[in-house]
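Entry 12.
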Amino acid sequence: MNDLLNDWLMFSKGLREFDKSHFLGLFKQELDQDQLRSIFSDGAAGTELHRRTKEVLDASKLDDYLYFQPKSPDDAVVLLSAAKAWLEELAAFCSERGNARLQGIAEGARVVIRDRRSFQLPKDPDSPAGWMLAFIGDEVDFALGDVDPVIDALMEALYGIAGDYYLCWYVIEVMIELPLTFAPYLSIWRNGARPVFAEDELVLLVEVDG
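Predicted 3D structure (tokens):
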């Protein structure tokens, strides 16, 4: 058993204390299926968290990257359909929550495909990508409420898979009640792209040459 997984098992049983950042690389440890399953608690919630995490990992590749990346594009038609479904989901959620500004961004965004190796990700939080991330993050946090340290650390580890909060939120969707599903986001990822808002576009970042 690798040291980080052992630390997690001790931590989750209350036998040792760690800062949640200690587990940022938990899912990058080349875990076999039994080891992956051991991360999650017993019961229906743990089973579903395991299933969703495995979905994300099976749709990803690490290679020499710091974070997992989506695998090469599969079907462009399916990819574009998933992107449109994600925009519709976001627009409906923003409307339900009364955020007209973000609703308009989701409804008006064009879907474009770009090479992720040459595209510059927006770093300014005062941007459509930052606004949407902060808005949904606040809604998720409110729906979750107070969580115990084990769940908090698990979320850190899930974020650490791809440096992507949306994939983390897909996995923990089973634990929250929101009129929003992250399944279309995972569908985009599964079909080879990382989606990000930029100005009036939803950019699908792909590895053009595979």
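Annotation: DSSP finds nine helices and five strands in the chain. The chain has a mean pLDDT of 94.
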